[in-house]
Design a protein that fits this description.
It contains eleven helices and twelve strands. It is α/β, with parallel strands linked by helices. The protein folds into two domains: about 110 residues, Aspartate Aminotransferase, domain 1; about 220 residues, Aspartate Aminotransferase, domain 2 (3-Layer(aba) Sandwich). The structure holds 4'-deoxy-4'-aminopyridoxal-5'-phosphate (PMP). 4'-deoxy-4'-aminopyridoxal-5'-phosphate binds next to helix 4.
């Protein structure tokens, strides 16, 4: 606290990212990073960019990457907005595309950055309870609002809402922007980008941090009607003209030019997810069906906090949220096969088996 702080700073409740401990040989299953590295072509592209050109600013519009993403997703480049991670894209969406005098609807259990952005931009947050089985009920999104946002698959539950139901939420709110945060969509979901040319109020947000193995590069994007994209560009150019540096632009383009690597790496995560989920179920865990690169699991006889602590003592880090409804759960990122084995082998002793 300091007398130099603005009133806003006093009020903020910042997001707390999952920890990034600097301990060797840690089995790190706490921040939903990809267990395998990015495509070798990404590394080559970044290395090729390392040189004298770094004295020059990057392309402020990221045109080549926007064209790459546009052709990959079958839209026009003017329908693509780039940001420094999808967190930055989300921040601009909150500031520029939600009605600030009405409450923003999002699931009570979802990405914990949403209420933080509400605080930053003075938007009233209206969390909408998920059902008992942790599902989104589309009927709950037919109430007056200043906008709607939800992750699909949801985080930290991993549960996926079929596209027909996403579409119902979009149709129910023609005068409001509905944002589908698809950070985890490539691990088994279908993208709502297929719908953006039918609905001018639908905006889809994705990231290269998860299925493209590039959390360290900080690249995210949104796709929607060009009027929505123009709003985001107006905010960006009033904030930071160069959110993506030269290395990020080069690496991101290369990531989309190696479809074979992407396909193989995401399939490896999907099959490990299923193995991890059945291993946990065999140990007595309740495991929610996941279409993400993590599973959300609780045990009827052991608390989430105690299990997370017990695993940590064995060098295995998972995420626990000390929050109502989800306190019994662990969110476990799908790791490499040896890491998932380490977790499955450490649990029986903790469970007293
Ligand atoms: N949305 C969701 C649902 C997430 O879990 C995350 C990752 N923490 C993000 C967005 C942001 O990802 P990034 O900024 O790395 O693109």
């Amino acid at each position: 606290m300091s007398r130099f702080w603005s009133p806003l700073v006093h009020e903020l409740k910042p997001y707390v990212p999952g920890e990034q401990p600097k301990i060797a040989n840690l089995v790190k299953l706490n921040t939903n990073e990809h267990p395998f590295g990015p495509s070798p072509r990404v590394i080559e592209a970044i290395q090729a960019e390392l040189g004298d050109n770094l004295r020059l600013y990057p392309d402020p519009t990221g045109e080549r990457l926007r064209k790459t993403l546009a052709s990959y997703h079958g839209v026009a480049p003017e329908q693509v907005f780039l940001g420094n991670g999808s967190d930055e894209v989300l921040a601009h969406i909150f500031q520029g595309l939600f009605q600030h005098d009405q409450p923003l609807l999002f699931p009570d259990i979802s990405y914990s950055f949403y209420p933080v952005y509400c605080g930053l931009y003075g938007i009233e947050a209206r969390p909408v309870p998920l059902t008992e089985s942790f599902e989104i009920d589309v009927a709950d999104y037919r109430q007056p609002n200043g906008g709607v946002i939800f992750p699909n698959p949801n985080a930290p539950t991993g549960r996926y809402l079929p596209l027909t139901q996403v579409e119902e939420i979009v149709q129910a709110n023609p005068e409001r922007v509905v944002v589908v945060d698809e950070a985890y969509v490539d691990f088994g979901g279908q993208t709502a980008i297929a719908l953006v040319n039918r609905y001018d109020n639908l905006l889809v947000c994705q990231t290269l941090s998860k299925a493209r193995s590039l959390a360290g590069l900080r690249v995210g994007f949104a796709i929607g009607h060009r009027d929505l994209i123009e709003a985001l560009e107006r905010i960006k150019d009033s904030f930071n003209s160069y959110p993506l540096d030269r290395l990020a632009l080069a690496g991101a383009i290369a990531a989309y030019e190696d479809e074979a690597y992407f396909e193989q790496a995401r399939q490896a995560v999907i099959s490990e997810r299923e193995r991890l989920a059945s291993g946990l179920a065999e140990l007595g865990f309740r495991v929610l069906p996941s279409k993400a690169n993590f599973v959300f699991a609780s045990h009827p006889e052991h608390g989430g906090q105690a299990l997370a602590q017990g695993l940590r003592e064995q060098g295995i880090i998972v995420r626990h949220f000390a929050k109502p409804r989800i306190d019994p759960f662990l969110r476990i990122t799908v790791g490499r096969p040896d890491q998932n084995d380490a977790l499955l082998n450490a649990l029986p002793a903790l469970l007293g088996r």
